């Protein structure tokens, strides 16, 4: 087990370096970070040169990357060009997005898995066909359309919720969380359904039934536990995607989270903010995937990590 | 490390493209394990290939027929939008801003006084172009790289696998915002280029797995024993038997690329005005949504129906190509 974790952690290093380097290159090579600093007009040459020296932008790119990563590992994510510490921005943005992601994941687990179990056990029946069609429709409507429509209906027409989020507590994030989760929710339903329908015919389920166990115990303890593995994989990989994909949802509902800060950072070419946030998001993605792999052994007793 | 059942490769493919891109990836993974099922026999006793079998299934599938009909219609109106919409999508009259339906404008007018019907019809072109070209680009790049890695293995294979890992770790919308925010050219090409750049790892992973399964078959060994060259084995023997999962994933991905283009345009980095795209229209309509919801609803509806048609088509193709479901 410990050896497996160590090996996986080692494997994460090249992926981490590669993806942060890639985003670093994308941000640095393609835009001039100084251009956004002098307002609408261009900076005069002397100011530009001084600013570049100040932020270390006159050094070669690999050196900038090395310095940056060195600082990151001491907890210093640098300063945004407006003088605010990136860590401060993170401190205000991440809690909101984490809450939003938790709401979304809860929706995926509760609604997605329940629908998946119900349809998987009744494959080919009207319920199954109906839910399957429903998932296709949900997958087809892009998140920003779902978000705008729900905002229009619930927030403006019926006034059940406030159309924009003010302080970002759990109660305000229910509808945005549902919007963020919608597409993944449909995938979770489909995955659970396929998995349940496949495992329904397996030997251990037949044994459990033959032992005379009550139906709900067979379904929950024997069938569901083993069928959840692909679902857990999906949800684990989805945590990173949800946090990064919250840009759209946060924009629609005016939530001041990670997506909002990233969007602002990108539009203003604020390299420090963008690279810092993406670095953290990549880390979240990698760690979530590792945790998921370790969860397999808990779910399926046949899997052992040597 | 004798047992290691869940390498990253075994995990769900396509997370890098956000959750939106991997419908069917897992199903395709089951498909690639059994690439060509036992051949069915037709009524005349003639053996049928996987493809003619699939085509027979598809022709009888109402879902396929319906989605194919919608797609043919979409392709036609994106080629000749003026056939069903009069006037230009850029001809707007501020005096009519936010007006409801009227003569010549069954969907009403948007916040700039543009005819929503005309703009919705003309918007199909951007979506269909981006969807089709991005899918072709991703499918070709991904399957060539994946097939080479799967066939030759070795260093190139592990390098490619690590590169795909790196691409999967970058959230797709973020990559799009960063790369496209500095592009000034207002054509579909940067959007397509970006999708190919971030989309190929998904297909290459599927193609690699598929080729690895197929290359262990006896007929590949036989061809090799007869002295066939690598390129001949790959093209004549492996490719036809390994291409099914790639087709399935690509068809479904087409719908998601259309949704992605609209999302990028909505965020202001995809196509920009004066281009006509549903994403732009939805974005422009959202501030006026209280007074003119029709300007938001029609392009949204068109977008949803288009994506739905492509995803249902992909679903039907998967059902037809997956021998496990027969």
UniProtKB/TrEMBL annotation, chain A:
One example of a Gene Ontology biological process annotation: transmembrane transport
Short name of any one Pfam family annotated for the protein: BPD_transp_1
SUPFAM superfamilies: MetI-like
Protein family: Belongs to the binding-protein-dependent transport system permease family.
Membrane topology qualifier: Multi-pass membrane protein
Entry's Gene Ontology cellular component terms: plasma membrane
Protein name in the entry: ABC transporter permease
Location relative to the cell: Cell membrane
Key words of the record: Cell membrane, Membrane, Transmembrane, Transmembrane helix, Transport
Domain ABC transmembrane type-1 stretches: 94-296
Keyword Ion transport: no
TM region positions: 12-31, 96-118, 130-153, 173-192, 231-253, 273-299
InterPro entries, per database record: BPD_transp_1_N, MetI-like, MetI-like_sf
From TrEMBL, chain B:
Lineage, uppermost ranks: Bacteria, Bacillati, Actinomycetota, Actinomycetes, Kitasatosporales
The keyword Transferase appears for this protein: no
Database matches in PANTHER family: ABC TRANSPORTER PERMEASE PROTEIN, OLIGOPEPTIDE TRANSPORT SYSTEM PERMEASE PROTEIN APPC
Protein name as catalogued: Peptide ABC transporter permease
Keyword annotations: Cell membrane, Membrane, Transmembrane, Transmembrane helix, Transport
Chief site of localization: membrane
Gene Ontology, cellular component aspect: plasma membrane
Transmembrane segments: 63-80, 128-151, 163-182, 242-260, 296-317
Membrane topology: Multi-pass membrane protein
Pfam families the UniProt entry points to: BPD_transp_1, OppC_N
Subcellular location: Cell membrane
Membership in a protein family: Belongs to the binding-protein-dependent transport system permease family.
Domain ABC transmembrane type-1: 124-314
BP term (GO), one: transmembrane transport
Gene3D superfamilies the UniProt entry points to: MetI-like
